[in-house]
Amino acid sequence: MVLEAAADPSRRETWPTVGLLKQNMAVFGLASGRHIDHLIGRLRSLGLIELRPAEQDKRVRLLSAGEKLRAHDRDWLVAHFTPLAALYPQYDYRPIMRRDPEFQKLLRRASIPFVPLGARMLTRMPEMLLFFNHAAGAMVIAALLQAALKDPDYLAVPYTDVGDRFGVSRTHVRQLLVAAEEAGFVKLHARGGRRVEILPRLLDGHRNWVAGGMYSHDICYLAATRAAQRPAAGSAATRPALESAGASG
Asked: Residue 107's CB: how many other CB atoms inside 10 A?
């Protein structure tokens, strides 16, 4: 979505090719080229993206988001901006909350300069990086945290059904959690480690990740409103964290 929104037809190096996608993903150090090819194939089979010849050069195939993916992305943005809208009612997030497709393009285009910042933030959060480096890892940790947070004492929760929910084997989930235990992020209990206790370091790491994500979303939003030359209501107010991000990012 970001690469396609930022593409300039007159600049070949910006065209959203598979190669450019791999190049940008390499900044995060999360997925191999082969893994990305697999993901692209999966997304194509679901009708979320397509590969089409470039109008300027039919030999080049470009990735293109279908309307199904665009609609999903608008829902994704609403989910991630809802906390910001609740915390900062003095700022106007209505273009996101009403799922404005034109603003969606502006936001995704405005996000491209902040990709390196996002990558640096991730590398400084080893608790989350461990999970993101494994297939379905982000979904596994989200599911476990959701289950654990339902209990005020953060007691050990079962994980045997997590793999089934996200299409990965129980062995894969267990290997991931064993690695997390060795790193001091969780503690496995019961026979065969079938229950997992979320340790304070992982809870704190996840909170920092959520906070960093909200910070990044708001930076991109401010950049998009400025690009549109129609600042959201209240954006003229002092926002020190956002103002300094561009300079220090």
From this structure: 26
Per the DSSP assignment, residues forming a β-bridge with 188 are: 196
Cα 48 from Cα 68, distance rounded (Å): 6
Model confidence over 175-218: pLDDT tens digits? 999 999 999 999 988 776 678 888 999 989 999 999 999 999 99
Whose CA is closest to 25, among 99, 122, 156?
A: 122
Nearest residue to 209 via CA among 137, 135, 111: 137
Helix %, strand %, coil % of the chain (to 5)? 65, 10, 30
What is the spatial distance between Cα 89 and Cα 79, in angstroms, rounded to a whole number?
A: 16
CB neighbour class for 137 (10 Å; exposed up to 12, middle 13-18, buried from 19): buried
pTM of the model: 0.78
Q: How far is CA 48 from CA 15, 40, 79, in A?
A: 19, 9, 19
CA proximity to 100, closest of 228, 235, 188: 228
Neighbours of 193 (CB within 10 A): 16
Contact predicate 95/140, CB 8 Å: no
DSSP 3-state assignment of 48?
coil
State whether residue 158 is helix, strand or coil: strand
Give the position of tokens 């209505």. 94
- HEC-encoded secondary structure of 194-242: CEEEECHHHHHHHHHHHHHHHHHHHHHHHHHHHHCCCCCCCCCCCCHHH
What 8-state DSSP symbol labels residue 55?
Answer: S
Tell me which residue of 101, 83, 103, 100 sits closest to 91, measured CA to CA: 83
